Amino acid sequence: MKTIFRLSSAALLIALGVSMCFSPGCKKKSSTDNSTTNCQCWTESWLIGTWEGTTPSSISPFAGTRIRIVFTKAHLQVHDSISGNPRKIWTYSGTFTWDVDGTPWSMNFDSVNYPLANTILWECIQFKAANQTVNNISLRIADLIQVDPLHTIDLDWGPAYDKTNTAPTNFDNYGDVQIDLGGVIQRADYPSDAGSMIRLTKK
Q1: Residue 8, CA atoms < 13 Å, CB-side half-sphere
Q2: Residue 23 pLDDT > 90, yes or no?
Q3: Which residue of 38, 114, 133, 182 has the fewest CB atoms within a 10 Å radius of its CB?
């Protein structure tokens, strides 16, 4: 069972600094304000609620499978900095449902599971040099109470850059879904290409 979360690193920040240090960001504060930026991480509540999406019809197996995620609460796991850039990692609790329109399979996820499986987290770094934020979501959902069929769902979003202070109402996920039924494994891979990812939209 995979439990590794894909998070940012100092190397990512250095790369971002090289590529974006001269990019326009959020509107600067006035010269009388000691702050250098007003680009902030969104509030943790931006994910709270119901999100739905459908797997691409062009990728088999599991083509056209509807997914529903209900986020109910958030917990701040990490509040530190990387190379002087503030970072927060929020984990969430709620319910993940696979195959909503067929044979639904649901599994709870909980912030207390971090950093193990059945955790969904959002990482935000306030990247000061570019006056914007860098965001990542990692979703790791797996069966905890049954072994046949055995579901393993690993999806990621990001890095996504924001200069507007406005949280998105949809996000595209890449990764893989694997279901082991009676020892026969079916797996679908969703590369980070346009049309190949799973878009989740807030309802």
Answers
A1: 33
A2: no
A3: 182
